């Protein structure tokens, strides 16, 4: 079942359950997917759908961080719910150990030895973990293993 089909089913269910929060989030994600499809001029493949989902998740996480920093729990709490809803549509996230294995393999593959080679390593790692691991975690692990 494609992501769009799943979103449509869940949207119908959210309407039946009168779950306004979930309905709102699903509509926003669906709109983002449709906008991206129009922008690219074709139906999205799985990887492109994943890119859109990751972008939506990152936007919410960044906002959540800012709201928590400002002490605005009234705005942070609904965002946490949105993040939980979007997480249902994301692929299973990799553990830190799994990401570390990928990073170490990439370092060995490109022959990286210093932080100057960080771009090469990130270029190899990111396509492998796209949507399955947070970029900041990957960045941190690459830096740790190159120093």
From TrEMBL:
InterPro entries, per the entry: Asn/Gln_tRNA_amidoTrase-B-like, GatB_Yqey_C_2, YqeY/Aim41, YqeY/Aim41_N
Molecular function terms from GO: carbon-nitrogen ligase activity, with glutamine as amido-N-donor
Protein name: GatB/YqeY domain-containing protein
